[in-house]
C-alpha cells in the first residue's frame, strides 16, 4: 500500500482504506457536527415503543383512533361467536398493541 493512505483492519478482517483529508482546505461549517448526536429534549426519555409512539401521537389522535376502531368493531361484532373478540378498545389496549408489536 501507498505510504500516504491510512488503512486499518475491521473486526471482520476487511482492510478499510481512508484517504487523508486535504489539510490545505478547511472543513465547511455545514459539514461540522456540533453537539452530541441522538435524540434531544423529551425524545431522549423515550425508552420503549409506547413512549416513542406518544411523542408523535397526541391524546386527541389516540381518541380518534379508538373511536374509529370501536366503530368498526360494532359493524363486525355480529360476525363473531365469541364476544371477547369484539370488545371496545381503550387507551390501555392501544398502548398494549404498540408494546406487543415491538
Strand order in the sheet with the most strands: 1-2
Oligomeric state of the chains present here: single chain
Major β-sheet, in short? Answer: 2 strands, antiparallel
Shape: elongated
Task: Tell me the fraction of residues in β-strands, as a range.
Answer: 5-15%
Radius of gyration, whole Å: 26 Å
Question: Helix/strand/pairing class, anyone?
Answer: mainly alpha
Spans of at least 5 consecutive residues with low confidence: none
Output the number of helix runs: 3
Amino- and carboxy-terminal Cα gap:
46 Å
* Annotation, overall tally of beta strands: 2
Helix amount, in percent?
A: 25-40%
Average pLDDT reading: 79
Run of helices and strands: EEHHH
Overview of this structure, please?
- The chain is mainly alpha-helical.
- It has a domain at 42-102.
- It is 35% helix and 8% strand.
- It has helices at 49-56, 59-76, 91-100; strands at residues 6-9, 15-18.
- The chain has a two-stranded antiparallel ribbon.
- It is elongated and about 75 Å long.
Quick recap of the structure?
With 102 residues, this protein is mainly alpha-helical.
Give the secondary structure arrangement, pairings included.
Blueprint: E1 6-9, E2 15-18, H1 49-56, H2 59-76, H3 91-100
Antiparallel strand pairs: 1-2
Can you give keywords for this protein?
single chain, 102 residues, mainly alpha, two-stranded antiparallel sheet
Amino acid at each position: 500500500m501507498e505510504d500516504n493512505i491510512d488503512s486499518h483492519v475491521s473486526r471482520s478482517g476487511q482492510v478499510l482504506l481512508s484517504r487523508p483529508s486535504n489539510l490545505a482546505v478547511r472543513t465547511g461549517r455545514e459539514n461540522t457536527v456540533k453537539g452530541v448526536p441522538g435524540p434531544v429534549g423529551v425524545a431522549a426519555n423515550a425508552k420503549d415503543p409506547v413512549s416513542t409512539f406518544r411523542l408523535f401521537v397526541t391524546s386527541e389522535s389516540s381518541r380518534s383512533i379508538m373511536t374509529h376502531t370501536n366503530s368498526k368493531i360494532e359493524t363486525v361484532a355480529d360476525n363473531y361467536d365469541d364476544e371477547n373478540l369484539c370488545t371496545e378498545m381503550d387507551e390501555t389496549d392501544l398502548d398494549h398493541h404498540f408494546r406487543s408489536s415491538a
